[in-house]
Amino acid sequence: MSTSTPLPSTPAGKHALVYGGSTAGLIAAGVLSRHFERVTLVERDRLENGAQLRKGVPQGAHVHGLFTPGMNVLCEVFPGFREELKAAGSHFIDFTDEHAWFMGGFWRPRIPCGLHFYAQSRPLLEWVIRQRLQALPNVHVRDGREVTGFLTSPDKARVTGVHLRVPGGGQEETLEAELVVDASGRGSRTPQWLEALGFPRVEETHIQVDVVYASRLFRRPPGLVADWKMMSIGPKLPTERRMAVLAPIENDQMLLLLAGWHGLQPPLDDAGYLGYTRELIQPHIHEVLQDAEPLGPINVFRYSHNQRRHYERMSRFPEGLAPVGDAFCSFNPIYGQGMTTGALQARALGEGLRQGLGGLASRYRRQVGQLLESPWTMATSGDLRFPQVEGKRPPAFALMSWYSDRLQALVGHDEEALNTFVRVMQMVEPSTALFSPGMVLKVLTSRPTAAAMERKPEPPFAPATAAKNQAA
């Protein structure tokens, strides 16, 4: 059952507008519905009646996980959401007990941690959220419209609305609002529009990663028996550049994501794609899928760089404007932090609104700047391990990399350390928890046991495959 407490309703204004129907935008609109008489969600794509891929979400066909804090926010905004998502086909996976997880050269211990990975297709997640959002009487969705710029007060100190038009041209219209939320993604035009209004250009940090993702749906093999629900095979940085995630989704399907860094790309033909799984450092995903039925094409997504816009550092910023999600910070999606971070930003926006609209922009930007520190550090410290990645390394980076390798070995056999690592990864605790005196002592002194070195999942078993092998 859902245990999250519904968000309080605090009147803040008459009309708020969110542009961008991403997960972060949908959640933000739900948050705003508790603070404004009317909320308008503007989306460039036409929104289909059902769980459909959208042109404006090129990464939509790939594995998308929602962590426990993100689900908690959704249940605060939409009470009962957890049960609705499960009924729609989502799989609730204990992140350490039901997840066979190989990373840094070790299998992680299989222990219950109470933190979940909610596995479903992104279109299904957005569809379930959108149904709840559209059922709210004070929320109106305008799809097939794009925002082309801001309306402002005469002194340009406040954003007062947006200009809209049908994508590709057509008559422009204006829509006024007391709060405008930019959820338009990493391609957001807010930096340029603010600069055109006389504000300083927001400082951006880019860290090049050059990752290629190739994902494909498979039917779950009949009779498959395994002691895990999801499996991840991660690289040992920086010497390995392949990874794979096999996750269950709705309709008895399995979604496979293969990735390669810095010039290593999963093949896009049937034989080559399956062959890539054979070349992983562990064989289990290949064993599951060698006779599995593919259900569609191989979808490719190229991700060039982590991108953080430091809105929290701007000395001047207009009232009435709040960027959320990838419009604020876009992570290498392989770390699975994006949707949960976007949900936490939407919650932060609601917390700021409980103090009113006055000064909201500053309160919100400061809070999000602090919120992003831990997930940004987690994501970029891994990417910066690759020598070909351009980007400023923090002081003592070599020492921190050495510590990280020792930490990865520790969480391969120490259950308490693993629990702390997962709580940091899922944004339940800050990254500083990995450097507590007790943790540092363990990292410096612990050695994996022989049993931990040999730990691995039970081999998957599918009767059809076994019979075929015996016949051969």
Structure write-up:
This protein is of the alpha/beta class. Helices cover 32% and strands 24% of the residues. It has helices at residues 23-32, 68-77, 81-88, 122-134, 190-196, 270-278, 284-289, 338-353, 360-383, 397-411, 415-425, 437-445, 450-454, 463-471, and strands at residues 13-19, 36-43, 64-67, 91-94, 99-103, 106-107, 116-120, 139-143, 146-152, 159-165, 173-176, 179-182, 204-219, 230-233, 242-249, 253-261, 299-309, 321-323, 329-330. The strands form four sheets. An eight-stranded mixed β-sheet has the order 6-5-14-15-16-13-17-19, covered by helices on one side. A five-stranded parallel β-sheet has the order 8-2-1-12-18. A three-stranded antiparallel β-sheet has the order 3-7-4. Strand 9 (146-152) and strand 10 (159-165) form a beta hairpin. Helix 2 packs across helix 8 and helix 3 crosses helix 4. The longest helix has 24 residues, at 360-383. The protein is globular and about 65 Å long. It starts with 12 loop residues before the first strand and ends with a helix. 43% of the residues are buried.
